[in-house]
Amino acid sequence: MPGPYDTQSTADILVKDYANEIKGKVILTTGVSPNGLGAFFVEHIAAADPKLLILAGRNPTKIQATADAVSKARPNVQTRTLRLDLESINQINEAGATVNGWADVPYIDVLVNNAGIMACPYAKTEDGLERQFATSHVGPFLFTNLIMKKILASSAPRVVNVSSDGHRLSAMRWGDIGFAEGKIYNKWRAYGQGKTANVLFATSLAKKLGGKGLTAVSLHPGVIGTNLGAHLDWNVEYTGLQRRTEDLDKELGNKEGWAEGFDFKTPARGVATHVYATFEPGLKKHNGAYIQDNHIADPYKETIKPYAQDPVEADRLWKLSEEIVGQKFEY
Predict the structure, then answer these.
(1) Strands, E, within the chain: which ranges?
(2) Which of these, 133, 147, 179, lies nearest to 317 by C-alpha position?
(3) How many other CB atoms are there within 10 angstroms of residue 283's CB atom?
(4) 3-class SS at 104?
(5) Which of 246, 277, 273, 30 is nearest to 135 (CA)?
(6) Under the phi-then-psi rule, with left for phi > 0, alpha for psi from -120 to 50, and beta for the rest, what region is 186?
(7) Which of 110, 192, 216, 294 sits at 20 to 30 Å (Cα–Cα) from 155?
(8) Alpha-carbon torsion 131, 136, 137, 140, what sign?
């Protein structure tokens, strides 16, 4: 039996242990630009001979670079690229139609909603949504539901949402999702709201579709230096991530406000939790779970806020998301 694992476990070890779970699977991963967690994840699991790796992202050149890296290292692994712009409802609809139109891909075993942005300056998408909320939640919500028929066609369907313990920085701001058109925008609270939405979305999927065989989980990969924060000046933003969020954490009463420094993970340690969340068979018995450091987080000891898994909050978010995208998804 695989494991046990901890925060020091690396993806190569988990891939070896879960090789039988990975072999022959069709896996769609979003946010796979080089030097990001999505790219590190697919490059690791390619070693276990999946049937097909579908690589989705906004920039075709970047996702092709990751596909080329996989093909160079593992020539026998099939890859396919998909343009997916999570900031555009129209383009997401197009991407969903593309996937549903692939006659040679009748099912998708796992969707890993890995794409996201972090603590960006205030901006709105073409649809008028605050950018972090759009990219972290609204886009993945729409895309996941558009291709759900193909996911449910798998014998063991799973959806994995990459969240963060940064969800502690904000519950859903029901009265003001968009931060008053930016007038009171706080990039870390906006990040927190988006990450809370990731967990709530997994909670809804587990409740709505668990009876049809779907396993849905969310995860915190850890603090890792990747291109997610490439826009940040870390000489300043280490202070931003440490001291500014420290102030916010103290205001919110979070224990992280008094913590000393971060345990910066290597990418191999970070995507180990991706591998665990995606392929651990035992998670079927813990549908809707929130994973960190390769185990189900303990709410009595670890950072998983009750509001992030509350069924009423999850249902409110589902209904709001349907209103935003202009489509109903009833199961």
Answers:
(1) 26-30, 52-57, 78-83, 110-113, 158-162, 215-220, 223-224, 264-265, 290-292, 295-296
(2) 133
(3) 20
(4) coil
(5) 30
(6) beta
(7) 294
(8) positive
Tell me the whole-structure pTM to 2 decimals: 0.93
DSSP 146-165: HTHHHHHTSSS-EEEEE--G
Report the C-alpha gap between 94 and 104 in whole angstroms: 18
Count the neighbouring beta carbons within 10 Å of the beta carbon of residue 117. Answer: 20
122, 185, 238, 307: the catalytic one is 185
**Residue 55, φ and ψ in degrees, nearest 5:** -110, 115
Give me the residue label for tokens 């706080």.
186
Q: By the 8 A CB rule, do 227 and 115 touch?
A: no
262-299: pLDDT as tens digits: 667 888 998 999 999 999 999 999 999 999 999 999 99
Q: Is 191 a catalytic residue?
A: no
CA 280 from chain centre, in angstroms, equals: 17
Whether 60 shows a pLDDT value over 50: the answer reads: yes
DSSP for 38-84 reads HHHHHHHHGGG--SEEEEEES-HHHHHHHHHHHHHH-TTSEEEEEE-
How many CB atoms are closer than 10 A to CB 52? 17
